[in-house]
Amino acid sequence: MPSAFRFAVSLRTLVAFGGALLAGAVARPRSVHAQTVAGLGDDAIPLPKGSKRFLISGLWNDWDAVYAPTASGGTTTRPLFASLATSQAGVAIFPQLVSAEAGVRTLTGQSAFALSLGALDAAGEVRQSIAPLGVSLGLTRRLSLRLLVPYVESRDVSQLLLNRVGSTANVGINPAYASGTGAAARSANGAVLSQLDLARTQLTAEIARCALGTATGCDAIRANGAAAQSLLIRAGTTRTTIASVYGDATKGGAPVVPIDNGSAQAAVRTTIATLRSEFAALGITNIVEGAAPAGATTVYGPGGMTRIVSDTAWKLGYTRLGNTRRAGIGDIDLTASYLLFDSFQADQVRRLLTPSRGVRSMLTAGWRFGTAGADRTDDPFDVPIGEGANALLVRSTTDLVLTKAFWMSTTVRAVKPLSDQIAVALPFRTDANVFDAFTVGTATRSLGTRLELEVAPRVSIGQFFGLSAAYLVRRWGADRYEGGDPMSSATLMSDVAMPSRTMQAAAFGASFSTLASYVRGRSRFPAEVIYSHTIPVSGSGGTVPSATSDRLELRIYTGFPRR
Question: Which residue has the higher pLDDT, 29 or 345?
């Protein structure tokens, strides 16, 4: 089904169904009673024995910013991918170019040279749509079971624009890797290397010959033997560096080289011309005038990042770069809930029709099946459809009914994921090395305990409508990864930890219910419709998405008691 319909949840269907319930219910208005309408979040209301509750829900999460720690120990809100945006995309973004930058510095004699592919504009947004489908069964007046199966679609909308204005780069695509003209570039590189090799060979032979007292024509070498030896060394360094940066007659070097008409390439030509003059002064003239390796004639443009991540010269191995979609079954929950105490004696008719104060408490425990896939190693911006880890679930909820129209719920949730083995990119990906060369290995993943506190006040407006709010505090314990490259004895990742994170959020919701009317025999369908909107308030610790959420739930009951 197209994503516009939010997978299995059709907003139009829910609204139409809710409207039908409303039309049938408000025809016979009644007096106000307590707890006639549920609210957002969890509550301790038990499911009657023999009853079933079917849940069709839609949850939409969206964020384009994160709460991120600052150097001073505080927290700031910054746009997603803001850490990648830079006016000069160089070795800070592409660590694999460190040796290329050092090589260009050697060839140009410019110790402060900083290679740049141009400015990098980075922005992103994550959209996640979840359709939780659930069924609950009341086994006894106090015990019930629930199965929740979410269908999840996640999408990242990323935008990475490189060198958008086209004038801020000083390096471009190494022509030695070009499929059409690469042979000519490699031939030019090979010619320069051959000339340097021959010049060094001839000078070495001349130095050895002139060491003999009977040799003639050695005035220049004998006048400054140290300079001749220095020339050999500098020519050898230049030869090695050219091969490393530009490549040789058979293969390319670094993925980028100085632009052919740029100042860096001009300095490389000057370096070779200087060597040529010094060799010529010693009688060695095989280096041709104007000899130089092939400079770049093409720079990366706005779509360059997509080309870079799939180019084998960069050794990244990504098959995609953002703007991707994942869809499938998320992590499945199976839980059992037991009513510990209920001043209404687990009687739903009494709860709905008696305007009295009361308290009830419920304990829930269960298991999460890690059926969702973990992060893709071939996409640096992948948004998984779940954590994909088996976990123990525990929840405790207590309801306080304070007046005939006002009640509130307090819920504590805990999720304890089990350790598992997952495929990861090594070294472990961070903002600092997301575009560095990597290999795929395995890691032991130990996710921290997830804790959540929710306080949700609710007010009933008549027997059909209700308003509710909630304040939530979520805390993720530190996640730990331990792994290495299975093809190497070198440990590329050891005991990497993501710090614990905390987020606070507020939620607001409205509800419609026919349960009270159904119990009186005045409605045909026992059902509830609940809408809620959640906004972030703050985040601390590690990086936390500043996500907003919208949820729409339709709960349909069968076997619900009547008076």
Answer: 345
Q: Sign of the CA dihedral 307, 311, 316, 317?
A: positive
- Supply the DSSP symbol for 518: H
- Average pLDDT over every residue of 396-403: 92
Q: What sign does the dihedral 238-240-246-247 (CA atoms) show?
A: positive
Strand pairing report for 501-513 and 527-541? antiparallel
Q: Are 481 and 496 in contact (CB under 8 A)?
A: yes
The DSSP annotation for 352-375 comes to HH----EEEEEEEEEEEE--S---
Q: What is the DSSP string of 527-538?
A: EEEEEEEEEEEE
User: Are 466 and 39 a contacting pair, CB within 8 Å?
Assistant: yes
The pTM of this model reads 0.81
Radius of gyration of the chain (CA): 34
- Best CA proximity match to 296, nearest among 325, 327, 324, 254: 254
d(CA 162, CA 172): 12
CB-count burial class (<10 Å; 0-12, 13-18, 19+) for 249:
middle
**Burial of residue 52, with CB atoms counted within 10 A of its CB: 0-12 exposed, 13-18 middle, 19 or more buried:** middle
DSSP string, 72-125: TS-EEEEETTGGG-BSS-STTT-GGGHHHHHHHHHHHT-TT-------EEEEEE
352 vs 544: CA distance, rounded Å: 40
Distance CA 360, CA 86 (A): 56
For residue 335, the SS3 value is strand
Is residue 492's pLDDT more than 70? no
Reading phi first (left if > 0) and then psi (alpha if -120 to 50, else beta), residue 26 is in alpha
Confidence of residue 389 (pLDDT cuts 50, 70, 90): very high
Tokens at 208, concatenated:
């050895």
Identify the sign of the CA torsion 497, 502, 505, 511.
positive
Partners of 471 in beta bridges: 455, 506
Round to whole Å and give the CA distance between 96 and 74. 31
Look at 313 and 551; give whichever has higher pLDDT. 551
Q: What's the pLDDT score for residue 487?
A: 54
Q: 182-210 and 225-245 helices cross at what angle (nearest 10)?
A: 160
Predicted local confidence at residue 21, as pLDDT: 38
Q: What are 232-278's pLDDT values in tens digits? A: 999 999 999 999 999 999 999 999 999 999 999 999 999 999 999 99
